[in-house]
Amino acid sequence: MFPATISTDIAEFGPAPVKGHGPGWFGYENHYESVLARKRADKSYRWFRNVNRLAREFPYAHSADEQKKVDVWCTNDYLGMGSNLEVIQTMHKVLDKYGACSGGSRNISGHNQYAIALEDVLARLHMKQAALYFNSGYTANDCALTVIGSQLPGCVFLSDASNHASIIEGIRHSGAKKMIWRHNDIEDLEAKLKTIPKDTPKIIAFESVYSMCGTVSPIAKICDLAEKYGALTYIDEVHALGLYGPHGAGVAEHLDFEAHRNGESEGTIMDRIDIFAGALGKGFGTMGGYIAGSAALVDMIRSVSSGFIFTTAQPPPIMAGAKAAIDFQRSNPDSRMELQRNVRSVKRALIEYGLPVLPNQSHIIPLMVGDSAKCQQVADILFNEYNIYVQPINTPSVPIGEERLRISPTASHTVAQQQHLLSALIEIWDRLQLRTLQDWERDAEGRLKPEWNSTEIGQAVWSNKQLDVVPAVLPDLTILPNQLEDTRLGI
Ligand SMILES: Cc1ncc(COP(=O)(O)O)c(C=O)c1O
Fold first, then answer.
1. Burial of 397 (0-12, 13-18, 19+ CB in 10 A)
2. What is the pTM (predicted TM-score) of this model?
3. Given this model, what pLDDT does residue 490 score?
4. What is the 8-class DSSP label of residue 156?
5. Considering only CA atoms, which of 331, 336, 347 is closest in space to residue 285?
6. What are the sequence ranges of the domains in the chain?
7. Domain Aminotransferase class I/classII large: where (predicted)?
8. What is the DSSP string of 203-226?
9. What is the rounded distance in angstroms from the CA atom of residue 486 to the CA atom of residue 465?
């Protein structure tokens, strides 16, 4: 087990307050303990590691011990924009001139040139009339969906079963009716749309890249259905921003790659999407979230949303840094292409060695373990013996029995680092006798399970042609038997 999850040294503060102890009173502390005991029992209790990302050595970090460096293979800062020189220099300049605080909510303190410029670039990124910046991606989804669902009379949400918690909560907070359609199942979506009267407002809420399984939604088909049944489309592109499309606007942009490269947007998928939701703490390496859509929609959310109105705005350097990251990625596709090449070589090598990579079309590599204690054990061995950090993903983020390592290569991982990860995983899988790719691919009767149809891997969002790579020229990550032991010596 690794260090505590709470930052303070509890002993320093003595025992917790005793209010409510004794017969007849409500026992607050006992109640907290019983909630925690339930979390431990159902394996959803969370442990945090002390990981300090090093801006000048991305993707390395140091642990509690500054001398122990670990190679981070689970960051959402996929492109290393959090360490990008232009981003950092911009933030320094704005911080020195305007300070560390925005001074209050935009409602009472006004906004500033950085908020205006950021929202302008966000709207342009998605070719929409307007955008609104929130303090996080979670807040953006929660607030926007709450407003939309509560302001459209009798509105019905059609929500993909694998949607992120922030989408689920936003819909719940709106009080609107919700229908959940099976993950990425267009037929199920259509069956549900058919049951809703024509004059009822309806919103299809979904993501482009699903973070825990890496699946990509059938966006064009969803747009077709939305047009056929008069529904609005609300897409969360949080895990695709910076990574897909000629300008890094996400999968919707990527689907009309050439048109957008040539600056033509009419009739494209991006054009057909009504509302985009995004976050800036992932591919854009900074912080915050947003929605983009028509000017009237954005103004309505700005005017009504409690979670937007009654909170202190992000400090100017954060907004300036976020804009610098977007500007950089809009005109520099190299790192997103490098990232995809790294994903290709790591995925291919893991599969060649029989490690159970769940197939998908994106940059996320879910490596299935299927048991929470073992998943934690693999992560511990990687950290302690190999100086590799990958966070285990357990329930409730994934169903029990589908625990996994969520590996996210970055644009900066070298061939040597990829090889180190691969040899570590091969050794650990062997040591712990974990289920292999073949074990996962087949059901008890030996039939291939549909979700393991590996042909999907060949249909990645980024095509070989767009990346200018053919699988044969990917780096060879072959591990020789005598290298297995060597790699455990560290990085
Ligand atoms: C699909 C999706 N949407 C929204 C969010 C929230 O974004 P943020 O981390 O900026 O709050 C996340 C976070 O991981 C996410 O995975």
1. middle
2. 0.94
3. 35
4. E
5. 336
6. 52-76+333-467, 83-331
7. 72-425
8. EEEEESB-TTT--B--HHHHHHHH
9. 37
- Collapsing DSSP to helix, strand or coil, 30 comes out as helix
**What is the SS3 assignment for 47?**
coil
In ligand 1, the atom with minimum distance to the C-alpha of 288 is: 10
Alpha helices in 83-156 (DSSP H): 85-98, 106-109, 113-125, 137-151
pLDDT at residue 161 is higher than 90 = yes
| Beta carbons within 8 Å of 33's beta carbon, 6+ residues apart | none
Omega prior to 59 cis, within 30 of 0 = yes
For residues 430 and 381, the answer to whether their CB atoms sit within 8 Å is no
Nearest to 80 by CA among 220, 285, 371, 261: 285
Q: Is 79 helix (H, G, I), strand (E, B) or coil?
A: coil
Instruction: Provide the CATH number for the domain formed by 83-331 in this structure.
Output: 3.40.640.10
> Tell me, what's the pLDDT at 9?
61
Measured from the Cβ of residue 258, the count of other Cβ atoms closer than 10 Å reads 9
The structure tokens listed for 334 are 């190299």
DSSP state of 247: T
**Is there a contact between 356 and 440 (Cβ–Cβ < 8 Å)?**
yes
Q: With a cut of 90, say whether residue 428 has pLDDT above it.
A: yes
Phi, psi of 406 (to 5 degrees): -100, 100
Nearest CA to ligand 1 atom 16: 211
Instruction: Give the Cα separation of 372 and 375 in Å (integer).
Output: 5
Using alpha carbons, select from 408, 403, 377, 375 the residue that is nearest to residue 242: 408
3-class SS string, 273-309: CCEEEEECCCCCCCCCEEEEECHHHHHHHHHHCHHHH
Gap between the Cα atoms of 82 and 89, Å rounded: 11
Which is it for the CA torsion 359, 364, 367, 373, positive or negative? negative
Transcribe 436-454 into DSSP letters.
-HHHHHB-TTSPBPGGG-G
Confirm whether 282 is a catalytic residue.
yes
Are the C-beta atoms of 162 and 210 separated by less than 8 Å? yes
The packing angle between helices 372-386 and 415-432, to 10°, is 130
Question: Which residues partner with 275 through β-bridges?
Answer: 234
pLDDT tens across 243-277, in order? 999 999 999 999 999 999 999 989 999 999 999 99
Q: How confident is the model over 42-86, as pLDDT tens digits?
A: 878 888 999 999 999 999 999 999 999 999 999 999 999 999 999
- Probe ligand 1: pick from 74, 77, 138, 393, max atoms within 8 Å of CB? 138
Contact residues of ligand 1, CB 6 A cut-off: 136-138, 141, 164, 166, 207, 211, 236, 238-239, 279, 281, 289
Q: Does domain 52-76+333-467 have CATH number 3.40.120.10?
A: no
pLDDT in tens, 308-330: 999 999 999 999 999 999 999 99
pLDDT reading at 15 higher than 80: no
